[in-house]
Amino acid sequence: MKLIIATQTSLALPLIQDLYARQQLAAVWLYDVTGEDSRQLAAQCAMLGIGVQVMDPEKPEALLQHQSVQQADAIVSCYLSFLFPPAMVQALQGKLLNIHASDLPQWRGADPLFWQIGEGAESGCLTLHQIAEQADTGDILYQQMFNIHPYDTHQSLNISLSQYMPLFIGQWLSAGGMDCKPQPQRKFQSEDKPAPRPDINSTGINWQQQGSLDIFHLTRACNPQLGGAAFSFNQDVLYLLEATPVEHPRYGLAAGTIVHIGEPEGLLVACHDGVLRLDIIYLAAGIFSGLRFAERYQLQVGQSFDSYPITKREKLDGRNNSQYNELCR
Q1: What CATH code would you report for 3-179?
Q2: Tens-digit pLDDT profile for residues 236-274
Q3: Cα–Cα 20 to 30 A to 319, which of 2, 119, 130, 328?
């Protein structure tokens, strides 16, 4: 059996190398060739002598012709944001597959790992399914559970799954590969959750609504590709890359209020259900430990951080502006 791997990132390289070594790789379809990661993957493929076909959304017929020439049994999409046009889905019906990191139909969407980490999930599921005209709705061919470490970030989990992918596809091939009987997904239920691409509302900290564990998991989900979970101080945006719930008195302070600054505890902030240590904070001026940030900008116990998005005036992005006058006083 010969497979084409369709991707846009070097996270797919372990799978590509494994199939190549087993002489089961027909070619690689590469999307977004202007990106640095895509260029690095193309260079790796060139070193191995693996044929690469650039995916042009305006020329699906070129991909169909390439699949026919390569006589590939299936195209497996992984780590790919490209949505195949309906004409391709119909022409390659049953041969166009995708690896999705959730137990479909739960967490359908562009970023299932973000939402699972953000909810504190301890495990997930890789699903190999046929691509249908509606995203993430095709029949299921194979599934395997995976563990989520309590300290996994979005990127560390992606890397772990990247390294597990060869075994996952190898097990599917051993189970019959394309001869595996497709199973229709169960009907989508009201309790099933979507997994859209995170936006400003899903990556911001709401001190009044989120507890210490909620914020802990959100920082993991936002680290590093989203720059951290956003919150604000004096209308300026800060990004929390790491935080830890700790045992410490709240003193009855409102959520978002600083309850302690100093060694060895660090920068501690009240939540409605406990206390959170702000471990690593990112802003335009650099990356600081919570304690060094508090000392550098002379924060005081009793001061409060604000939720994000900012609603009082025009939103500011700390990664793209230098308006930190209030902090620097």
Answers
A1: 3.40.50.12230
A2: 899 999 999 999 999 999 999 999 999 999 999 999 999
A3: 119
